[in-house]
Structure formats: structure tokens, C-alpha cells
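This section describes the prediction task in plain terms. A model, or a person checking by hand, is given the sequence of a single protein chain and must write out its three-dimensional structure as a string of C-alpha cells. No templates, partner chains or ligands are provided. The sample shown here is typical of the held-out split.
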Amino acid sequence: MKLKIFGLLLFALVLSACGDDINTNLFSPEEYFEYARDLYLDEDYEQALREFQSIILQYPGSTITDDTQYFLGMTYFKREEFLLAAYEFSKLIRDIPASEFVPESQFMLAESYYQLSPNYQLDQAYTKKAVEEYQAFIDFFPLDNKVEEAEKKINEMNIKLARKTYSNAYIYEKMEYTKAALKYYDKVASTYHDTEYAPQALYRKIKMNMDKNNTGEVLKDINSFLQKYPDDPNATELSEIEQELLGN
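The expected answer:
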């Protein structure tokens, strides 16, 4: 008897599960999108991904195409598949430029590359791409409420790029590849002038050129250093060097 009851309960559970199956063929495009978005909001990203992809294939050019495209990108982002997310956001921006989702897609495109940005010691191609896309967001949507966040992210990425370039310069200096070291120190000082690595790089460049007796270059860079970083700990030393070289 107990076995019979268990069998009936099991059958009832199977029927209940079957009743939960959704026949999406009965949906209008708008209803299908709402169903897929509910899956996304419920954090069922795997199923939501399949449904968004299906909607795009079944209803190209419909009124919910840009909505679907945006949420497809967001689903990949939530799944931490950032390259695929970047592709979908860029596709929306390129193919549906009049969409209301373009500003947010541009920001999320930058966010995707931001998430891919590695430790400063590694290749910084994604970091540079993140800076580029955040800047595009600021340029095209200067009144958006996320501009301040984009500016902070750009500053963060520039610090990482400056550190990477400074590290390269320092390595070249220690290896006595003087020309390469000077080139990289100069890049830090000129390109990332608003980071903490800029005065350090300019100081190292000055000291290297002093060793090479490049007096004209030394004086030029000291003058630049004192104007830009008068409160830097090395400013007093460089001011004294300048006076000595000028014979004062």
C-alpha cells in the first residue's frame, strides 16, 4: 500500500513538472521578451540566455529587438562572459543607433573591458580599451548621471597604465637600455601627467640625462618639474641642481 501511495505521489510530481513547461510559440514577441526578462530578473541566466538568443533569431527587426539585444549583453555580463557581453553591447550601438539603450550599452561596453583589465604587470590591451570606451561614453553622453563614475574608472585605469609603463622604464634602466628607458619615462611624464608616477618618471629621466651630460634636456625637464610639482619631495634637490647648472 505504501508503495502504491509513493507511486501516485511521484506521478503527481511529474504531472506538476510538465505543467510548468512553457510553450513560447504561443507568445507574441512582446510576451516572449517579458518571459525572458523575468528569467533574467530571477537570475536564471542560463535559460534567459537561450530565450534572448531565440527571440533575436525569431523576430529580427521587431519592436523588442533592441530591448532583447541589451538584455542579451547584460546576461553575458552577469555570467562573467565579458568578451561576449562587449560584443553584444557593441552590436546594439552599431546596428540600432537610435535605441534608448545606446547610452547604457556604451557604458556597459566600457564596463565589460574594465572587468577584463588584468594586473598591471600583464598586457594592458583591455585596460586601454576600457579607457577608450569610457571616454566615448563621456564624449557622447556628457549629461548622463554615470559620467562621474566613468571619469573615476578612467583615472583608475590610467594609474594602472602609468604604473605598467613606469615599471617597463625602470627595468630598461636597470638593464642599461638607456634610450628605451628614457622613452618610457618620458611617456609616463607626458601621457599620465596627472598620476603619481609622472613626477617619479620625470625625476628618473632628469637623473639619467645628468649622467649623460645632457645639460639642455636636464634644465628643460627641471623647469617643467618645478612648475608642475613644486611640492614634490624631489623639488628642492632639483632646484639646487638647476641653480648649480646655471652657475648661480
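For orientation: The radius of gyration is 29 Å.
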